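Issue: ligand-bound run for pyridoxal-5'-phosphate - logging full I/O for the record.

Environment: standard queue, default settings, no custom constraints.

Inputs:
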Amino acid sequence: MSTIQQNLQDVRGRIATAALSCARSPEEVVLLAVSKTKPVEAIAEAIAAGQRAFGENYVQEGVEKIQYFAQQPNGIGLEWHFIGPLQSNKSRLVAEHFNWFHTLDRLRIAERLSDQRPTGMPALNVLIQINISDEQSKSGIALTELAPLAEAIATLPNITLRGLMAIPAPESDYQRQLAVFGQMNSAYQALKQRYPQVDTLSMGMTDDMSAAIAAGSTLVRIGTAIFGARA
Ligand SMILES: *Cc1c(COP(=O)(O)O)cnc(C)c1O
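Outputs:
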């Protein structure tokens, strides 16, 4: 078995353990394999091990990989998530190539993505990014700004609001991780009440996936534990 195959099996095991330990079904948690900076050969290994959903942070790199796998027999049915910060002048490439966009934090980008989504493609699935740790340097909106932004983007025809995403400040203590993720889950549950199509809470990375799942995450974004450390 290749290292990536073995790693994927381990990560699936960790997801299942975390889910079962809080009486959730492991199937409620989607595994997004974060392949940024990794070559197509590494992605191909993950595909061979049954992985379908991949996350990319850099527009050009992501589009090249999407176009590569569109030509490959093993590329059928893959799902591509853009999870990095997006400059508005690059929005067209995301609208034309990706299935999901996790880092929506302003109406202007939402409008561009909706306008630029090609007719014939299904609506782009979007998540609003919340700056849950209130860090000056991080992107995302404050929870107090969520309701008006959600309302404005709900009217756009070619994007669908599916939920929320967060990257909390690094924190090694499990209880403190849980507390921050818990705030996200409260906001998510409220959003779900108002918008029935909302079904995705994107939180949890290699170092905090167990707490994220215990707090209600429905999608974990895992890079290092699958593909190894990045250069
Ligand atoms: C890189 C990245 C990840 C993956 O992080 P790991 O710690 O390698 O699992 C997840 N989410 C986002 C937004 C990232 O940029």
